[in-house]
Structure formats: structure tokens, C-alpha cells
């Protein structure tokens, strides 16, 4: 029996090694196709694929590679080793610090005489705030060990390919600041909020663990209330959403995967599409569509007045000739502009508990005509247990990977939604149920590797 068990375990390890090898080869091939070769982690320049938000083949290979490496380490490491690693996510506050102090920018622009890297003593002299060089060195050593910077020599640090998105000119820096700032603080309150008599069983958006965090500052307030009362945080949130979309490959992936050409073909009788982006935020997917199909999209961006002002600024800079209107809306209280060909909601439903999500979807359904399409752009939750059958958004991962590939971003996002909004990432079955309660029926799911497009029409 022991021999049989050992043989089965060895077989699983060999299968993981095979997946690591094949996915590594696939990723290297994608890099080499660009003509720029395979990147080095300590390169001082970005690789073209680093900014290619629609690199679906690369993302698919990395999903398998990450899942297989994680599964292998978890299998062979001692349990206490794995648990201690899980309990020490200390890179996050260190990343928040280096972003807010602009350390990547300091390293990029002020290294003396073109030298490779700066000593922590010199870094501190360029910082906005006074700091102890030894303490900064401790922060930088952790981040360099985790690959986020390069330690060139003792206490001398340089940017590398991984740290370049931390430059303040990149919207990714705002995403990192958001995740490692108030979001992390809200998640840190979960142990208290999950057992507090007033918060534990509530699914109201103003009774989340973030609401618990700010209860003395703003009583009975939601994260949305807090954002609206903090203009700096609100502006950063909008910019962070641009960075988030780039991270998961959203804009180009939506352009590439959904068959927009069919909607615009001569057989459709449409010369252009009326496209309403509801809760648009910066409207990055609408922006990508407008650029990819010139004069083929008449776009309406609808959001609350404050974020809509940030959106106007972005579009004026990025695409001044776009056919776009900016129309304020509170989608919990009113319907979007009626009669559009496509209604698009990107990462909206995940922010709201079921009762509010149904209100939003019903309000959209009221505005739809019989030929309208509603497209939700969301994560689809996949569980980690086997024998699930069809899960809708994509095939199950090959064994011995976990069925959800062990991909941590969606399940991390699931906890973030709980902490910020008392909401969750939903399964495909959950979306079908929400649609039925809102007068909608599912047409098709369009997988985008990490995320998914969920297409609805009015129920017949």
C-alpha cells in the first residue's frame, strides 16, 4: 500500500514538472515571437510584451506555470513552511511606501553619472520625507529579494524590468498603492468584522469590514461613500482602475475575443454601434474599441458626476476625436440611456451584494430593446475541488493542478469584494440566476483567460 501511494505521489510530481516544462516553453515562444527575445528579470528596460495588455497566449501559459509551481512547492515543502509564508505578506506595505516616495523614479532619473544603482544613503537624500537609510535598506532588501528591484551591491539598488511599472507615470503604480493601502487595511479588519454582532451576518454594502475600519470616521458608510468624500483617493481609484485593466489584459482582450465585426457586418445592417458603458469609470474598454474601430462606435459613458470628470480628462488626452458623450447616472436609482445596441458593465456587478446587483441589472433591462445585448465583464469564480463538472467560463485545469489552476488573483479579489463591499466574485451559475431575477437570459460566455465576458439578452 505504501509503495502504491508513493508511486501515485511521484506520478503527480512528474506531471507537475511536465506542466512546468511545457508552459515555460510556451511562454518563451511568445516572447521570442516578438523578435526581442526572452526577458531578463534584471533588465533595465521593459520587454514589448510587458505592456501588451492583450497577450492572451502568454497569460494562458503563465496561468498554468504559476499554478504548477505553486502546487509543486506546496506539495514538497513542510506544511509549517507553507503556512509561515502565507502569514507574511509584507511586500504590500513596502510596495506602498516605495510608490508613495517615488523611489522607482528616484532610481530612474538621478543615478549619478549613469551608474548602475544608488546607495540607500543617496536615495534618502532625494526622498520627499526624511528617513533612516538603514530602515530604507531593510525595505529595499525585501523587495529586491522578491524580484521587485535589483540589489547591485551592498545597499545599492537599481530598477529592473519588474520595478518599472512602479514609476509614477504608470497607472500600475496607482493600482499598487490602492491594493496595498486602504484595500489591505479593509482586508486586515476581516477577523474583527466577521464576528462583530452588527457586521457578521450583514450583506449590506455599508456593513463591510472596510465600513468597520472607518466606523469612527464615517458612521454607516460604504467604501463608495468614503471614496466620494476623499477626492484624492477618488482620483487615484480611477487611475488605479486603468492600471488594473492593463494588468488583467482587459481592453485589448475584449476587442480581440468578442466578434464585434459580426455586429458591424453588412448582413447586420449596422454602420455603427450605439454602445453604452454603464458605471464606466475611465472607460478603458470603450476607449480601446473606439480606437480599434474608427467611426464605428457611438459611445455613451455613464457614471457618477465626480468620476465622469476624470474620465473626460482621460479621453480628451487619449482620443480627442472620439464620438463620445458623458452622461451622469446613479445606476441604483435610474436606468441608462435607452435603446442602445450594447450595454457594457465592466467590473460593476462584483462590487455589489445580490440585492443591489439585481436592481442594477433590472435598470439596464428596462433600457434595452429586443435586439440589445448586455455584456458584463467580470471574473468568474472557479472552486478548488474536483469533480465539478462544467463550470461555464473555461475548461478545468489539467490534473494534478487544482481545477481553478490555483490562480490566486480571482480568489484574492473575492476576499477584497467581501472586505470592501460585502460582495463576492460569482460563478457562472450565480450569473445565470441573477439574470433570471432581472428579466435576462444568458446568451454566451466568452473566456478571456483570467476574466470573462458574460452576454445576456432580454428574456423571451
Automatic annotation (TrEMBL):
Any GO MF annotation of the entry: O-methyltransferase activity
Superkingdom of source? Eukaryota
The answer to keyword Methyltransferase applying to this record is: yes
For this UniProt entry, which residues form the secretion signal?
none
PROSITE patterns per the UniProt record, alphabetical:
SAM_OMT_II
Matching entries from SUPFAM superfamilies are given as:
S-adenosyl-L-methionine-dependent methyltransferases (SSF53335), Winged helix' DNA-binding domain (SSF46785)
Q: Where are the transmembrane segments?
A: none
Which keywords has UniProt assigned to this entry? Answer: Methyltransferase, S-adenosyl-L-methionine, Transferase
Per its UniProt record, what Pfam families does this chain match?
Methyltransf_2 (PF00891)
Q: Is Transferase included in the keywords of this UniProt record? A: yes
Q: Where is this region: Disordered?
A: 28-49
GO terms (BP aspect): methylation
Q: Which InterPro entries match?
A: COMT-like (IPR016461), COMT_C (IPR001077), SAM-dependent_MTases_sf (IPR029063), WH-like_DNA-bd_sf (IPR036388), WH_DNA-bd_sf (IPR036390)
* Residue ranges of every copy of the O-methyltransferase C-terminal domain listed in the record: 270-387
Full protein name: O-methyltransferase C-terminal domain-containing protein
Organism, per UniProt?
Answer: Marasmius oreades
Cite the source lineage. Eukaryota, Fungi, Dikarya, Basidiomycota, Agaricomycotina
Amino acid at each position: 500500500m505504501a509503495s502504491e501511494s508513493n508511486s501515485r505521489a511521484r506520478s503527480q510530481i512528474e506531471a507537475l514538472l511536465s506542466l512546468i516544462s511545457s508552459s515555460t516553453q510556451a511562454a518563451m515562444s511568445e516572447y521570442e515571437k516578438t523578435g526581442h527575445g526572452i526577458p531578463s528579470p534584471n533588465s533595465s528596460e521593459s520587454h514589448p510584451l510587458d505592456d501588451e495588455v492583450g497577450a492572451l497566449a502568454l497569460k494562458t501559459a503563465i496561468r498554468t506555470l504559476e499554478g504548477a509551481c505553486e502546487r509543486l512547492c506546496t506539495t514538497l515543502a513542510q506544511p509549517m513552511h507553507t503556512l509561515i509564508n502565507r502569514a507574511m505578506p509584507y511586500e504590500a506595505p513596502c510596495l506602498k511606501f516605495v510608490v508613495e516616495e517615488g523611489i522607482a523614479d528616484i532610481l530612474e532619473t538621478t543615478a549619478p553619472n549613469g551608474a548602475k544603482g544608488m546607495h540607500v544613503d543617496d536615495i534618502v537624500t532625494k526622498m520627499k520625507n526624511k528617513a533612516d537609510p538603514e530602515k530604507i535598506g531593510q525595505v529595499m532588501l525585501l523587495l529586491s529579494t522578491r524580484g521587485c528591484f535589483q540589489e547591485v551591491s551592498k545597499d545599492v539598488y537599481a530598477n529592473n524590468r519588474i520595478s518599472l511599472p512602479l514609476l509614477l507615470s504608470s497607472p500600475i503604480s496607482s493600482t499598487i498603492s490602492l491594493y496595498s493601502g486602504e484595500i489591505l487595511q479593509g482586508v486586515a479588519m476581516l477577523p474583527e468584522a466577521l464576528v462583530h454582532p452588527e457586521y457578521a451576518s450583514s450583506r449590506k454594502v455599508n456593513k463591510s469590514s472596510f465600513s468597520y475600519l472607518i466606523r469612527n470616521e464615517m458612521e454607516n458608510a460604504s467604501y463608495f461613500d468614503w471614496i466620494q468624500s476623499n477626492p484624492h483617493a477618488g482620483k487615484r481609484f480611477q487611475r488605479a482602475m486603468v492600471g488594473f485593466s492593463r494588468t488583467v489584459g482587459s481592453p485589448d482582450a475584449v476587442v480581440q475575443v468578442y466578434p464585434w465585426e459580426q455586429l458591424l457586418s453588412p448582413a447586420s445592417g449596422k454602420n455603427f454601434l450605439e454602445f453604452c458603458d454603464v458605471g464606466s469609470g475611465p472607460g478603458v474598454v470603450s476607449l480601446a474599441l473606439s480606437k480599434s474601430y474608427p467611426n464605428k462606435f457611438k459611445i455613451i459613458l455613464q457614471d457618477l458626476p465626480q468620476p465622469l470628470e476624470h474620465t473626460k480628462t482621460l479621453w480628451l488626452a487619449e482620443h480627442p476625436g472620439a464620438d463620445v458623450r458623458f452622461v451622469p447616472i446613479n445606476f441604483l436609482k435610474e436606468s441608462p440611456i435607452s435603446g442602445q445596441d450594447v450595454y457594457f458593465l465592466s467590473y460593476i456587478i462584483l462590487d455589489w451584494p445580490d440585492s443591489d446587483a439585481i436592481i442594477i441589472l433590472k435598470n439596464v433591462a428596462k433600457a434595452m430593446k429586443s435586439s440589445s445585448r448586455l455584456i458584463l465583464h467580470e471574473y468568474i469564480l472557479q472552486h478548488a475541488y474536483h469533480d465539478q463538472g462544467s463550470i461555464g467560463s473555461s475548461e478545468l485545469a489539467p490534473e494534478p493542478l487544482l481545477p481553478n489552476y490555483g490562480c490566486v488573483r480571482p480568489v484574492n479579489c473575492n476576499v477584497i469584494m467581501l472586505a470592501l463591499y460585502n460582495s463576492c466574485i460569482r460563478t457562472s451559475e450565480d450569473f445565470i440566476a441573477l439574470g433570471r431575477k432581472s428579466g435576462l437570459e444568458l446568451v454566451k460566455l466568452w473566456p478571456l483567460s483570467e476574466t470573462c465576458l458574460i452576454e445576456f439578452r432580454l428574456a423571451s
